[in-house]
Design brief:
single chain, Rossmann fold, 2 domains, two-stranded antiparallel ribbon, 10 helices
């Protein structure tokens, strides 16, 4: 589902929809339904690309969360868990390879570094593998680890989890890492719209979870840009729809509480 939604709410999805609409009109030039399909596709993508639209819908997902404060954490032994939000892998001529954080992952890393300064003795788990076990890619957990260290988090306190594929995987795979360190509660760092599904997944595994939301990378976008179609708005619509579909899916599978 995630891959399909990522494609649907992307420039590739827009091109595919408009090409399909144009082909429909070409095959059935006199069909009113073909013209309506073309108009509907254009309008739907136009609305989805206006940042203010998904930002308004996202309030349903984010209204119960606030910026993390040190007072939010109880006395139990605590770890900071930062969930990966995607990265790109770049290869060089000589076989060199590096990973570049996507915007969501970068925002989460910034928040995790801030939380680490608030709880300086906490272990930081940098979590996220690669799609479809593609060994040609650098795991996002490893890329985030490098950036966390650059931001001042001691390397000895960062543990990388690089085998998970999604949020449900992370909630399971991270468990043994935390239990081996006698950790009782976690400060969970992820995007604000992703937090509800993530908290439910980790609570389902028995963890006490303290949310630490990272804002959307373009949360401070100017109002004129919020009201016109942009690629950022389209991608954000995809993220919001992913969560609105993902939470009931996780609940039905017994993965969310």
């Amino acid at each position: 589902m995630g891959s399909f939604l990522s494609f649907l709410f992307s420039p590739d999805g827009v091109i595919a929809a408009l090409l399909a609409s144009a082909l429909y009109v070409r095959v059935r030039p006199g069909s009113a339904s073909a013209r309506r399909f073309l108009v509907a596709a254009a309008v739907a993508y136009g609305v989805a690309s206006i940042y203010a639209v998904p930002a308004a819908v996202a309030r349903v997902l984010t209204r119960n969360y606030h910026r993390f404060d040190r007072a939010d954490v109880g006395p139990a032994r605590t770890a900071i868990v930062v969930l990966g939000g995607g990265s790109d892998t770049v290869d060089g001529w000589d076989g060199g390879r590096t990973g570049i954080l996507g915007g969501d992952s970068a925002a989460r890393v910034l928040e995790a570094a801030r939380v680490s300064r608030e709880i300086p003795d906490a272990v930081v788990v940098s979590s996220g593998g690669v799609p479809n076990d593609d060994l040609s890619k650098v795991p996002v957990g490893a890329v985030m680890r490098d950036r966390l260290v650059q931001l001042g988090v001691p390397a000895a306190q960062v543990v990388v989890e690089a085998v998970s594929h999604d949020t449900h995987d992370e909630s399971i795979v991270i468990g043994p890492i935390l239990r081996a360190r006698a950790i009782n509660q976690i400060v969970l760092v992820t995007s604000d719209v992703h937090m509800s599904r993530s908290v439910g997944a980790f609570r389902r595994q028995g963890w006490t979870v303290v949310p630490a939301i990272a804002p959307h990378p373009d949360f401070d976008m100017s109002w004129p840009r919020r009201l016109v179609p942009t690629p950022t708005g389209l991608y954000f619509s995809g993220a919001v729809v992913h969560e609105l579909c993902g939470i009931p899916y996780y609940w039905m599978r017994g993965w969310w509480r």
